[in-house]
Task: inverse folding
DNA sequence: ATCTCAATGGACTGTCAATTCCATTGAGAT
DNA sequence: ATCTCAATGGAATTGACAGTCCATTGAGAT
């Protein structure tokens, strides 16, 4: 609802993967089942995460994905950006093309506050916080 | 991007209307031009706002819409809810149906923080804050 | 009474993001 | 070398939501 589907799914798989044994590769197919995201769509998302350097992919036998960095170094913001979701992208709520601090629209101030909060949220949380205890 | 189109448009017209003479009714057609939202689509949105009691509508000659309450009593939250956008709607990011405080998913904590911030934002801002000086 | 204007409501259409499909590539295993 | 497995990449399809259309209702004005 605040996030695009790919953004939501990316956050979801990454969090799920964060709970797994980092030494073992996981296939997209298995992740798809575990996490409830259509297989091929998920593959496409994992590709973006791989290009972006967040995942490491390997083809063929015993292939699959692993997270490419220490969990505490993977910010939500990085995950979102990998799938082209930029939390602070400045799209003027008022529909104005030239809305900025110099030429603010009547909603500029309020909207900026929210955008900043969301960006700050994405910037300050990492996969290191994924709750191992939580089952759902 | 965080908001649905109807939610964004609703916030936009309402903010625009907040700057107008509250004694004069405005036609949807005129608002549509002023605010850059397709006329019939906007009408549909205004209808929701009217049902919800935020706007007052009048048909026929000299008809149109006016805001039905003092600006400081119209919270962004009310506007969003009128168009069925509930900022704190609990849709588990992890895709789990039964995710709550008792059965948290691994993203529960982080996601709750963001949802609460957004809801708090919508709850604490009103049309009274619309910036009359801002032109865009 | 009748005419015009503007909102109302619901059915219809278009568009783009979400999802699926398929052919290709590269890595291991035998 | 060859076979199988899994990722890759792009083309094709689907579906949800954005946007359009039209017939109806109710309020003034003449």
Result:
């Amino acid at each position: 609802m605040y996030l695009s589907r790919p953004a939501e799914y990316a956050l979801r798989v990454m969090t799920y993967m964060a709970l797994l044994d980092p030494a073992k590769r996981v296939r997209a197919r298995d992740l798809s089942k575990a996490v409830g995201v259509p297989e091929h769509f998920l593959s496409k998302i994992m590709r973006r995460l791989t290009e972006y350097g967040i995942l490491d992919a390997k083809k063929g036998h015993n292939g699959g994905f692993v997270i490419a960095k220490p969990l505490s170094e993977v910010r939500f913001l990085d995950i979102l950006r990998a799938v082209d979701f930029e939390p602070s992208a400045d799209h003027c709520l008022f529909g104005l093309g030239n809305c900025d601090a110099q030429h603010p629209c009547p909603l500029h101030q309020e909207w900026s506050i929210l955008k900043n909060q969301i960006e700050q949220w994405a910037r300050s949380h990492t996969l290191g916080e994924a709750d191992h205890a939580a089952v759902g």
The longest helix of chain A spans residues 108-124. Chain A has a mean pLDDT of 94.
